[in-house]
Amino acid sequence: MENKMTFEESIAQLEAIVTQLERGDVPLEEALDAFQKGMVLSKQCQDTLTKAEKTLTKMMSEDEEVPFAGEEEA
What we know:
Blueprint: H1 7-23, H2 28-61
Helix pairs in contact: 1-2
């Protein structure tokens, strides 16, 4: 079973794929595989961002102040 990457790890891997493809020195088969993997990573990142946005919107619409993790109370 594959370990699920964090959002930051997914973004870093996606950036590495983009850099590799932009160089243009990758054989076609590898480029297609990298592009496909990049599309999957892109969707996963977008899904994570959409979920986070929905969670924050819900928290803000509940008319309650909810401190973010790590935020110290004044």
